[in-house]
């Protein structure tokens, strides 16, 4: 990877972006982006995270036990734990990351959708993916229209709207939980104004210079298969009562008497009354003793 043409191109793009982050505008943007990311990752502990950033590290406030930084070449790696590989072929197992951060790289990659697909592969089911990008409909987007011919960072990239990336995330089965806009400043101001920043963040106005997308893997419900009974005709109430053992036994214990049944019972009662009643002495045979 470090000797390939693609790696060399990405290394040049990364190096060309570093002077911007040293300017007042770049530092102000980075601080507001870090302020947006802080509440999202501060509560997550343990696990692993990967940050593909074109600027300084943003995950310094996270309590994740194993943070990893990505680099296109070994010469630009910050430490031994830096991941050096193609952005669309991450050398990580499936669904192993709790936090996946892509900071402005989707605007400077030729096949950005492949990188997003690879980032979705390595994000765990309970993990989150965070994307940072420049807002093309903000004040800085209007300034960019006047600087199209400039090939310096950040004007040289392909700016995509948050709604466009929402469609990309849906393609890889990720759902956008929220979109936060940050860095509100005028066209002539280099630093994000404190008043405008608090106002824009409070109402989340889509006029900030940058946006942060927080996405999570869609949870699919297990399919439910209903049982189908092979009854060709609708069941009658009588047949349903027969199938209920408890109910049928209860109803059969108290059958309804018809008029004919009442008449026969009355006749039997009269016949019993007309039978002769034998005396007790007649029932005793000769020689039997009566025991008191």
Summarize the topology.
Elements lengths: L4 H17 L2 H18 L6 E6 L12 E6 L11 E2 L12 E7 L8 H11 E12 L4 H7 L16 H10 L2 E9 L11 H10 L6 E8 L19 H7 L1 H8 L6 H16 L5 H4 L9
Parallel strand pairs: 1-2, 1-4, 2-3, 4-5
Antiparallel strand pairs: 5-7, 6-7
Describe the structure.
The protein is of the alpha/beta class and 292 residues long. It has a single domain (1-217), classed as Rossmann fold (3-Layer(aba) Sandwich). 37% of the residues lie in helices and 17% in strands. It has helices spanning 5-21, 24-41, 112-122, 139-145, 162-171, 194-203, 237-243, 245-252, 259-274, 280-283; strands at residues 48-53, 66-71, 83-84, 97-103, 123-134, 174-182, 210-217. Strands 3-2-1-4-5-7-6 form a 7-stranded mixed sheet, sandwiched between helices. Strand 4, helix 3 and strand 5 (123-134) form a beta-alpha-beta unit. The protein is elongated, with a radius of gyration of 41 Å. Mean pLDDT is 80; it is low at 246-253 and 285-292.
Do you know the CATH architecture? 3-Layer(aba) Sandwich
The low-confidence runs, each spanning 5 or more residues with pLDDT under 50, are: 246-253, 285-292
Strand content: 15-25%
Read across the widest sheet, the strand sequence of neighbours is 3-2-1-4-5-7-6
CATH topology: Rossmann fold
Describe the main β-sheet briefly.
7 strands, mixed
| CATH homologous superfamily descriptor | Vaccinia Virus protein VP39
How many distinct domains?
A: 1
Distance between the termini: 120 Å
Shape: elongated
Order of helices and strands: HHEEEEHEHHEHEHHHH
Q: What's the overall average pLDDT, rounded?
A: 80
Count helical runs: 10
Tell me, what is the CATH class? Alpha Beta
The radius of gyration over CA amounts to: 41 Å
Structural class: alpha/beta
Helix share bin? 25-40%
User: Based on DSSP secondary structure assignment, what is the total number of beta strands?
Assistant: 7
Domain Methyltransferase type: 82-130
GO molecular function: S-adenosylmethionine-dependent methyltransferase activity
Region (Disordered): 238-292
Keywords: Methyltransferase, Transferase
